[in-house]
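User: Could you check the structure of this?
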Amino acid sequence: MYMAKTQNPAWLTARRLTLITVGAALMAFNINTFVKAGELIPGGFTGITVLIQKIFSHFLNIDIPFSPVFYILNGIPAIICFRFVGKKFTLYSILMVFLCGLMTDFMPNMFIASIQLHDTLLSAVFGGILNAVSIILCLLAGATSGGTDFIAIYFSEKYRKDTWNYIFAGNCVILAITAFLFDLDKALYSIIFQFAQTMVLNSLYAAYHQKTLLIITNCPDEVYKIIRERTHHGATAISGKGLFNAQDRTILYSVVYSGEVSPLIKAIHAIDGDAFINVIKTEHINGRFYKKPMD
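Assistant: Sure, the predicted structure tokens are below.
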């Protein structure tokens, strides 16, 4: 019989803190190298902060630090998420924002200068990739990189509506302001930065994509119990007949998150080694679907 593994809470906390610290360091490094070298504008509150820095430097000849502006922009969205989304989730995200701002301002200049690229296109491509990696590390830790992610998650949780298109529209406004005040070329390169980031995120982080499982098994009750215990998702049993050996079989139909598929298949095969499992990519579902709450 398959027994679910339990993890030490202290280990889980240490893992989350490590992922967030590494993610914050990578994001700060990216801002100080690829973003600054290419004079790029990332998306979200990071991009707004960089844009404000450029405006003060270019028009007022005042160099302002990154962290104060970044913290102020994240303040109100963080408070809203703390109250309405999840306390631990928000606190870990705030830690990510705090460390990123601190590291961005105090990262050694000698280390930064040794890695900066002098080609804007390379800065845009590799900067977008590195930014995506840092965001993925935060997501794996059960947190976000802050900024507009707070806003998107709050509205998604409250209204069950995808708000990422609105976030994208906001990023377009930021790039339009950049093009108007400074240089159209830099705004266009910033689009490449954001495109590279989005492509890497979609390719490497598929935990919230859905997959459909069609499971042909002789142990439907035991298999459903595993699905229920491990994923909290339901399943539908369909009676069928195997034509190859003329035996009655049961087909379990269930939709789960992509990140749950591999461990679930191992657990099912531990119960029924002869189970036949077909995994299908799910484009869209409409109806009741369990969504893990933010902690």
